[in-house]
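User: Could you write out the 3D structure of this protein bound to adenosine-5'-triphosphate? I've included everything you need below.
Assistant: Certainly. Input first, then the structure.
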Amino acid sequence: MRSFLLDIQEFQLLFYHPNKLKAKTLLGSKEYVKDGESGHIGAKIFTFRELAVATRNFRGDCLLGEGGFGRVYKGQLDSNQIVAIKQLDRNGLQGNREFLVEVLMLSLLHHPNLVNLTGYCADGDQRLLVYEYMPLGSLDDHLHDLTPGKKVLDWNMRMKIAAGAAKGLEYLHDRASPPVIYRDLKCSNILLGEGYHPKLSDFGLAKLGPVGDNTHVSTRVMGTYGYCAPEYAMTGQLTLKSDVYSFGVVLLEIITGRKAIENSKTGGEHNLVAWAKPLFRDRRKFSQMADPMLQGQYPERGLYQALAVAAMCVQEQPNMRPVIADVVTALSYLAAQKFDSDTQGVQNLRWTPATPPRTRRDADKRQKGGSYEPRW
Ligand SMILES: Nc1ncnc2c1ncn2[C@@H]1O[C@H](COP(=O)(O)OP(=O)(O)OP(=O)(O)O)[C@@H](O)[C@H]1O
Ligand SMILES: [Mg+2]
C-alpha cells in the first residue's frame, strides 16, 4: 500500500501542469471532486464491497469481456449509474503499474473521444477500474466475427468512427502537455457509445512523450502484435509516430474488415499491413481492399482517399508518416461526405475470401515490418 501511494505522488508531480491539466482528484477525499474549468466530475474511490454489490458479486452474466488486465463486468452503482468494472487479474502480468498509469492518465485527460473513468478501487490487494459504460462495446466487435443478425457498419459510420478515434489521439498528442503516447491503439480499445460515438480506452501502457529536444522515449516494447510500428518493435524507441502507425493499422481494419493479424493464415495474408502494401501500389486494386461486407456500398473516391491516409500512416519510416492533426483533417473531411447508395450507386462487387475468426492477442510478440514506397 505504501509503495502504491508513493507511486501516485510521483506520478502526480510528473503530471501536474497548472495551466493545462488538473491533478486534483487522486489522493483527495472520497467525495466527488468537481473540476471548476471543465465541469468534469473527478474519479471516485470505491470500496471493493460497493463494486461487488454493483456486479452482484461479479456474476458470470454481468461479464462483458476479458483482456490482458482482467475481466470486465457490467455493473449498476448505488446512484443507478451503469458502469463497466475492470478487475485486475491478480495473477496477471499487467499489474499495479498499469493500474496507476490508467488512473492518473484518465484523471487528467478529458476529451469527448476518450473514455471517462468514473472511479477506481485500491482496497487491500484488489485493483479495479470503473468506467462509463459504452453500450455498443468495442469497434472490434463490429468489424470482425459478427454474430448473425448484427448490423454491418456502413461506410459513413466507419468514417465517423475513424475521424472520432483520430480526434482522441490528436488530443493526446497535441493538446496534452507533455504529449501522451497512447501505445495501445487497436480496435478492441476503441469503445462505442450511443450513435457509435468512439472513445479511446485503456491507458495503462500510455507514456509521456519526449520533451525538449528529445525525439523519442526509450521503453520496453509493449503493445499488441500487428499494431506495433516496426521501429518501435525493433529498437524500443517510442515516438508519437508509433501511435500514427497503429492508427493506420486500425484504419486499414475499418476499410477492409480484415484483422491486423490473421492467425489462421500464413504468408501474404497473415499480417494486414504486409497484405496491403503491394495493393497500395496499384490504384486499380483499391476496390479489392474494401470490406466485402460493405457489398460495394462506398464512394470510390472516398475509398481511395481513406486508403491513401492509411498507406501514409503505415509507412516504414516514422518521419514519412503524417502528424495526427493532418489525419484528423483528412478523415473529418471524409466523414462529412455522406455516401448515399441510392444516388451514388454501388461499386462492382468482387469476391474476396472471408476472414476466419482470430484468436486473442499475444501482448509481447513483435511485428516485423515490410518496406513501402507510396506511389502518389
Ligand atoms: N467501458 C466499457 N463499456 C463497455 N464494455 C467495455 C468497456 N470496457 C471494456 N469493455 C468490454 O470488455 C472487453 C475487454 O476489454 P479489455 O480492455 O479488458 O480487453 P481488450 O481491449 O480486448 O484487450 P487489452 O487487455 O489488450 O486491452 C472489451 O472488448 C469490451 O467489449
Ligand atoms: Mg482494452
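The domain at 2-132 is CATH 3.30.200.20 (Phosphorylase Kinase; domain 1).
User: Perfect, thank you.
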